[in-house]
Design a protein that fits this description.
Elements (H helix, E strand, L loop, with lengths): L1 E6 L1 E4 L4 E8 L5 E9 L6 E7 L4 E3 L7 E6 L4 E6 L8 E9 L4 E3 L3 E6 L1
């Protein structure tokens, strides 16, 4: 499975941004699709995960501001970032898990929020 992320960039605090990630080579075997992020000097952390047939789990720090959606036909996961804050600055990684519990990561896309 290969993941190709797009979007990201520089945005002012309070603004909005979107990123997307397309999975190829997985067929319809993706159970979970979502996003993690890693800020400089910090560990990678969950942003939001959409589990097929279940609820979407979000980190407390982004609840009400970020939205994870997915298009199963396109095997694409999206992250809409609203009301961004400087502390949202990080490299955002897309993540997928298939029916066999194998996990795959995208290459990461930088999101920078200016104050």
């Amino acid at each position: 499975v290969q993941l190709q992320a797009s979007g990201g960039g520089l945005v002012q605090a309070g603004g909005s941004l979107s990123v997307s990630c397309a999975a190829s080579g997985s067929g319809s075997n993706l159970v979970a699709m979502g996003w993690y992020r890693q800020a400089p000097g910090k560990q990678r952390e969950l942003v939001g995960i959409d589990t097929r047939g279940g609820t979407t789990e979000y980190a407390d720090s982004v609840k009400g501001r970020f939205t994870v959606t997915r298009n199963n036909t396109k095997n694409t996961v999206y992250l809409q970032l609203n009301s961004v804050k400087p502390e949202d600055t990080a490299v955002y990684f897309c993540y997928v898990r298939d029916w066999y519990s194998r996990t795959y990561w995208g290459q990461g896309t930088q999101v920078t929020v200016s104050s």
